[in-house]
Amino acid sequence: MTEKAHTQEAEAPQFYLEEEHHPEGSTMLGFWLYLMSDCLIFAVLFATHGVLGRNYAAGPSPADLFDLPLVAINTAMLLFSSITYGFAMLQMERNAKMETLFWLGITGLFGLAFLGLELYEFYHLIHEGAGPGRSAFLSSFFTLVGTHGLHVTFGIIWLITLMVQVKIRGLIPENRRRLMCLSMFWHFLDVVWIGVFSFVYLMGVLG
Predict the structure, then answer these.
(1) Which of 32, 42, 177, 186 has the lowest CB atom count within 10 Å?
(2) Measuring CA to CA, how many Å separate 81 from each of 17, 76, 99, 128, 156?
(3) In whole angstroms, what is the distance from residue 195 CA to residue 73 CA?
(4) What is the DSSP track for 13-66?
(5) CA distance 192 to 202
(6) 97-127 and 68-93 helices cross at what angle (nearest 10)?
(7) pTM for this structure?
(8) Over the stretch 31-49, which tens digit does the pLDDT of each residue have?
(9) Position 108 confidence tier, pLDDT thresholds 50, 70, 90
(10) Could you tell me the CA-to-CA distances from 49 to 45, 87, 98, 164, 180 in Å, in that order?
């Protein structure tokens, strides 16, 4: 092959790259933008509850319905899950695969306990005739708390999916990036729930 042919082959355009091309930081930036949009959704739901939260339609009020000790236990479940996820991230930094999976599993169990108590509360309220159609207060309550519960459900599904990926492929850079995104999402849900506990439950019962 002549020198000219070598030069033409070297200068031939490439229309694709075989290796993965992922701009540094693009995933995290995109996920931050998603969390900001989620903040707007919850801000609207909090505002709606603030407007409708005292419209009982001659029905039961928060003081009549809410079991604060049960809600406090539920809150502790979610806070503990955030702590155990932090332990998982520390083990990820140490490149300890099995320890990371262990703490992710504990996090998932706390998340499931949170969802179980929330579903029990919803069942109890509906069984007493305090369903979402009973008053504007209950409609806004079920919408706000239910939306948060759906986010936790999605987070648990995401967590299980990542555990399978880590089990199969290990703590490769792609899985580390995904675990970081889920960490942001999980802690975000913690912050939102603290707002729900304070604004909906505590202010509802004590106000």
Answers:
(1) 32
(2) 40, 8, 15, 30, 11
(3) 16
(4) --S--SS----TTHHHHHHHHHHHHHHHHHHHHHHHHHHHTT--TTS--HHHH-
(5) 14
(6) 160
(7) 0.85
(8) 889 899 999 999 999 999 9
(9) very high
(10) 6, 35, 43, 38, 32
What pLDDT digit, counting tens, does each position of 56-102 carry? Answer: 988 899 989 999 999 999 999 999 999 999 999 999 999 999 999 99
The count of C-alpha atoms lying within 13 angstroms of the C-alpha of 121, restricted to the half-sphere facing its C-beta, is 25
Rounded Cα distance between 85 and 140, Å, is: 30
In the chain, the amino acid numbered 46 is F
**H or E element in which residue 15 lies:** none
At position 35, the amino acid (one-letter code) is L
Six-digit token string for 16: 């694709």
Cα(90)–Cα(88) distance, integer angstroms: 5
**Between residues 30 and 177, which one has the greater pLDDT?**
177
> Contact at 8 Å (CB) between 201 and 68?
yes
Chain length of the chain: 207
C-alpha 199, offset from chain centre: 19
pLDDT on residue 11 = 56
User: Could you give the 3-state DSSP secondary structure of residue 118?
Assistant: helix
